[in-house]
Amino acid sequence: MDKPSRLIDREPHDGSSWLEYLEVVGVIALVTVAGWFSKLDYHALGQIYLLAVVLLAVRVGRWPVLFSAIVSAVTWNFLFIPPRWSLTILNFNDTMLLLSYLAVALMAGQFTARIRAQERYAHLRERQATALFHLTRALAGARTLDEAVEAALRQADGLFKARTALLIADDGVLQSHPAGSFQLDETDRRVSEWVQRHGREAGRFTDEQVAAEALHLPLLRSDVGLGVLAIRLPAEVTRLAADQWELMEGFAAQIALLVEREQLRAASEREKFFAESTRLQRALLDSVSHELKTPLAVLRSAGDKLHTEDAAKRSALTAEMRTATRRLDHLVANLLNQSRLESGALSVRPDWCEVRDILNAARRAMGEALNDRPLTISVPEDMPLLWGDEPLLEQVVANLLSNAVRHTPPATEICVSAGRTSTEGKEQVFIRVADRGPGIPPELRENLFEKFHRYRETRPGGLGLGLSIVRGFVRAHQGEVVAENHPGGGACFTVFLPHAWPAEIPADEL
Amino acid sequence: MSFEPARAEILVIDDEVQIRRLLRLTLEDAGYQVREAESGWAGLQSAAAKAPDAVILDLGLPDLPGLEVLARLRKESALPVLILSVFGQEGSKIAGLDAGADDYLTKPFSDGELLARLRALLRRVKPAVAANRFTIGPIAVDIARRRVTHHGRTVKLTSMEYALLQMFITHRDKALTHRQILRELWGPKAEGQTHYLRTYMMRLRRKLEDEPDSPQYFQTESGIGYRFVTEP
Question: What are the residue boundaries of the structural domains of chain A, listed by start?
Answer without folding.
Answer: 18-132, 142-267, 347-498
